[in-house]
From TrEMBL, chain A:
Its job: Probably part of an ABC transporter complex. Responsible for energy coupling to the transport system.
Name of protein: Energy-coupling factor transport system ATP-binding protein
PANTHER family the record matches: ABC TRANSPORTER ATP-BINDING COMPONENT, HEAVY METAL TRANSPORTER
GO cellular component: ATP-binding cassette (ABC) transporter complex
Membrane topology label: Peripheral membrane protein
From TrEMBL, chain B:
PANTHER family, per database record: SLL0384 PROTEIN (PTHR34857)
Entry keyword ATP-binding: no
InterPro entries: ABC/ECF_trnsptr_transmembrane, ECF_transporter_component
Record-given protein name: Energy-coupling factor transport system permease protein
Annotated GO CC locations: plasma membrane
Spans through the membrane: 12-43, 50-67, 79-101, 211-230
Subcellular location: Membrane
Entries under CDD domains matching the protein: EcfT (cd16914)
Source species of the chain: Acetitomaculum ruminis DSM 5522
Record's bilayer topology term: Multi-pass membrane protein
Keyword Transmembrane: yes
Entry keywords, A to Z: Cell membrane, Membrane, Transmembrane, Transmembrane helix
UniProtKB/TrEMBL annotation, chain C:
InterPro entries assigned: CHP02185_IM
Pfam families associated with the record: Trep_Strep
Name of the molecule in the record: Energy-coupling factor transport system substrate-specific component
Top-level taxon in the UniProt lineage: Bacteria
UniProt keyword Nucleotidyltransferase, yes or no: no
Residue spans crossing the bilayer: 12-30, 42-61, 68-85, 91-109, 116-135, 165-185
Keywords: Membrane, Transmembrane, Transmembrane helix
Coiled coil: none
Length: 464, 233, 199
């Protein structure tokens, strides 16, 4: 599959971000190309043009020409393109059409009207080549994020397209999930397929990449070949607004050396257990979280990190042990008042029709002044009349933080705050977390983002 | 335990709908519940089928023996309510059995064989697909509401009606829109718009057992119609 | 790509499926408490009209094509049939959805007044069962009255379908539907359009 972009420009009908200006790009068969750049630079737009979602699905006008093996892309219908181009998206939760894994893997083949016998042959081949033995005939809703993404990949793989388009596939995955994804990518590279992948997390791709296209404000700013990219220093990459190209593990810091800790400055878990018998999720946890400190909770998928977060928020009653705040035992009801969680998908917690109204929602009396101050601190004041849903991911997150400040919450929890954030926004997020800590809040963050942990965490609590 | 084609199950439901449309509620309803119970047990769904039959029995007992002892408005409303329940019971019970013994992909494949238009098949499939996601989303949203101190109690609602209303509608509709968009993008790029007839990896065929079960239901239906038309019931 | 303005493409169909489920949930949550209590059974249509207004308004803004509402009707009708709901409600719903689609479509789904009327018509659907009961109640409840006298029988027949119950049901549903529809229109202006989800 040879790709040729000639003088391509594009803008979305309703927004400026993500537009492309005069793109000229050639990709040859078998190349593994990484599209990198900060949020809104246009890398996702390039993938959408290649799979036909632009302009068909997203609207907008394209200028210039895009050729796939010499044929104009706009001459293809969506289902004709589906034979040539396979797309894998960011969100594992919303990519699958079926409820069970087997049907999902054969979805593309069924759409194409392939005869039943052939479908089953391909199905057996795919499950063997991608090592999906343990995922056959399962309920997709019961899989982990990484397993879901693997099924999504298998579904595309089954149609054997020549070009793979992958849009930030690691955004919602943990470390294990990313490793499984890497294996799939190695497989298709070894088959000589053309791969175009848009990503923020670069480290797991470093060994696979043939060329890096660095985009800025819709233009191709730089093209870097694979070897040069692999030898670039982390500082040079950060300067370009990009994340590290190397595997990295944050070093554990010892908070006990820092300062005098007294009982009334902590949230303590003493022998905390959740669940009974076989359904025991958390077992005999003992840990102290300190005011003014950021504690990062790590651990593989399924070890109970979400359960811990929800328990500290007061949604789950403990089966054994205590939770103690400021020297006194605290009940789930009281925890609900004192704790706040910034969820992985912030859309679940935005309720109002403007940023300002979101801050004053549920508060008593005249809190507009306070809201103004809080919004200013979080760089959101200029957006105060905007609808929360029109903000970017990072801005929505800061709005949730603003709400927690307005409600005078003492304990603020974060669930994977940096999924899908580019380097600049990841650093911003780290800065705001430090600001929050300086106000004396107890900050608990569930994350597997090592760069982020290195930036702002005071302590690492591993739930092994 | 036997298995029958999803299309047979559909035909059985249609026969049952015809039955409840044409035949007045009475002893024939009991007969219908009996053959439905028989089918449920044959298909392997024993526990839940028997519970449904038992519930029917209890309601029938109440209708025939207990109801005449009650009087006044309680009698009237119970009369109406039971009338509605009995009209719907045969279909409902059969539907429960069908849904509990058929996979969605099986069902969709069967619809495709009958050339049911995709403008019906796709939305139906999506409804089943989206249901667990909707439950998950709602769980997160109600957690978020609790953390904000927004509650669904009548007292809170009377003090802050607009807050509760917006909290109820906005997040769910925003996440529903996003989910619909992402689902569509993923389906379209895998060729869902292909006009060619959809196939399936499952082999769906009519067999001998389908014929036998169909015959049983049709025979019962014909028999009841004849008795009714002949004035015996 | 598919630019046909009136036909429904895959994206429209998937949005229809998602919203069909939201409509179903709204009807069940609103009307459920009524249907399960014997004295309030007849008022199920009132309950099912309470929550769906905003969902309706958003849906016709997202997919302003007549086929979409008709498909909601067809899908809910099929689902109702498959789960054993009474045919009066299923087909009543289908017919009302088609009429609602035609009404709202007259002004290309852009007139608030026509959209509101369309929603009122949409809410009439579930009343189908009760209309069938009203006109055909002998076949539904005779077998339970065999023990009484002829007079008692006639009296019961008229009590169970007294005009006052039917009128309360119809008027109540239309009033609640109007309020829910107006709420929907308001939320459209205030929230949905600003949020960018009405496109």
């Amino acid at each position: 599959m040879n790709i040729d972009f000639r003088n391509v420009s594009f803008s979305y009908p309703n927004r400026e971000a993500g537009a492309l200006k005069d793109i000229n790009l050639k990709i040859s068969q078998g190349e593994f190309v990484l599209l990198a750049g900060s949020s809104g630079c246009g890398k996702t737009t390039v993938t959408r043009i290649l799979n036909g979602l632009i302009p068909g699905f997203y609207g907008g006008k394209i200028e210039g020409n895009v050729f796939l093996d010499g044929c104009e892309i706009r001459d293809y219908k969506s289902y004709e393109l589906a034979f040539l181009v396979g797309s894998v998206f960011q969100n594992p939760r919303t990519q699958f059409f079926n409820v069970d894994t087997d049907s999902e893997i054969t979805f593309g083949l069924e759409n194409a009207g392939m005869p039943t016998k052939k479908i089953n042959e391909v199905f057996d081949k795919v499950t063997k080549e991608l090592e999906l033995g343990n995922l056959r005939a399962k309920d997709i809703f019961k899989l982990s994020g990484g397993e879901k993404q693997k099924i999504a990949f298998a579904s595309v793989y089954a149609s054997a397209p020549e070009l793979y388009l992958i849009d930030e596939p690691s955004a919602n995955l943990d470390t294990l999930g990313i490793e499984a994804l890497k294996k799939c990518l190695e497989k298709i590279k070894s088959q000589g397929k053309t791969v175009v992948i848009a990503e923020h997390r670069l480290y797991y791709l470093a060994q696979l990449v043939d060329r890096v296209i660095y985009l800025k404000d819709g233009r191709i700013e730089k093209e870097i070949d694979g070897d040069t990219f692999r030898s670039m220093s982390v500082e040079a990459l950060n300067q370009m607004g990009l994340r590290t190209n190397q595997y990295f593990k944050a070093t554990k810091k010892d908070v006990k050396k820092c300062r005098e800790i007294t009982d009334d400055k902590t949230l303590s878990l003493k022998k905390l257990s959740i669940g009974y018998g076989k359904k025991r999720v958390l077992n005999n946890l003992n840990h102290d979280f300190y005011k003014g400190k950021i504690c990062c909770v790590t651990g593989r998928n399924g070890v109970g990190k979400s359960t811990l977060l929800r328990t500290v928020c007061g949604f789950i009653k403990r089966s054994d042990g205590n939770i103690i705040l400021n020297g006194k035992e605290i009940s789930p009801k009281e925890l609900k008042k004192k704790a706040f969680m910034v969820m992985q998908d912030v859309n679940y917690q935005l309720f109002a029709d403007s940023v300002l109204n979101e801050c004053i929602l549920g508060t008593k009396g005249d809190s507009k002044d306070k809201a103004g101050k809080v919004l200013k601190e979080l760089n959101l004041l200029e957006f105060k009349d905007y609808h929360p849903n029109t903000l970017s991911g990072g801005q929505k997150q800061r709005l949730a933080i603003a709400v927690s400040l307005m409600m005078n919450k003492e304990i603020i929890l974060f669930d994977e705050p940096t999924s899908g954030l580019d380097y600049k926004n990841m650093r911003l997020c780290a800065d705001f977390l430090k600001k929050l800590a300086n106000k004396g809040k107890i900050i608990i963050v569930v994350t597997h983002d090592e760069e982020f942990i290195d930036c702002c965490c005071d302590e690492i609590y591993n739930l092994a | 335990m036997i298995t029958i084609d999803p299309r047979t199950k559909l035909i059985l439901i249609i026969i049952t709908v015809a039955f409840s449309m044409l035949i007045p509620t009475g002893i024939s309803t009991c007969i219908w519940i009996l053959i439905t119970t028989f089918l449920g047990i044959l298909l392997g769904r024993v526990g839940k089928t028997l519970k449904a039959t038992l519930l029917f029995g209890i309601l029938w007992f109440v209708a025939i023996y207990i109801l005449p002892e009650i009087s006044g408005t309680a009698h009237t409303s119970l009369l109406v309510w039971l009338g509605l329940v009995f009209k719907c019971y045969p279909c409902c019970m059969l539907a429960g059995i069908v849904i509990g013994t058929t996979k969605i992909s099986e069902f969709m494949a069967a619809m495709a064989k009958w050339n049911v238009p995709r403008s019906i098949v796709i939305p139906l499939a999506i409804m089943f697909r989206y249901f667990p996601t909707l439950k998950e989303d709602w769980g997160h949203i109600s957690d978020a509401m609790a953390l904000r101190g927004i509650s669904l109690s009548p007292v809170y609602f009377l003090k802050n009606p607009l807050v509760v209303i917006e909290a109820l509608y906005l997040p769910i509709l925003v996440t529903a829109s996003k989910t619909a968009d992402e689902l569509s993008a993923s389906a379209i790029t895998r060729g869902v718009e292909n006009p060619k007839m959809r196939t399936s990896r499952l082999d769906i065929r009519f067999r001998m057992t389908d014929g036998v079960i169909l015959f049983l239901f049709l025979f019962t239906f014909a028999g009841i119609v004849m008795f009714y038309a002949g004035g015996y019931v | 790509m598919n630019n046909d303005k009136k036909r429904l493409n895959a994206k429209d169909l998937i949005i229809t499926g998602v919203f069909a489920l939201l409509f179903l949930m709204a009807a069940m949550l609103g009307g459920g408490p009524f249907a399960t209590v014997p004295t309030l059974t007849f008022y199920f249509p009132i309950g099912s009209a309470i929550l769906a207004g905003p969902i309706f308004m958003l849906f016709i803004a997202k997919v302003p094509k007549q086929g979409a509402l008709a498909i909601i009707g067809a899908v809910e009708c099929i689902l109702g049939t498959l789960t054993g709901m009474h045919w009066g409600m299923n087909f009543g719903f289908l017919i009302c959805c088609i009429i609602a689609a035609v009404i709202a479509g007259i002004k290309k789904f852009e007139s608030p007044v026509f959209n509101l009327i369309a929603y009122l018509v949409y809410c009439i659907g579930p009343m189908g069962t009760y209309f069938v009961f009203f006109f055909n109640r002998e076949s539904w409840i005779s077998f339970m009255l065999k023990k009484g006298t002829q007079e008692e029988y006639i009296q019961k027949m008229s009590e169970t379908a007294s005009p006052s119950i039917m009128i309360t049901m119809v008027v109540g549903t239309l009033v609640v539907a109007a309020l829910s529809g107006l709420l929907g229109l308001r939320l459209m202006r205030k929230q949905f359009i600003k949020a960018g989800i009405a496109a």
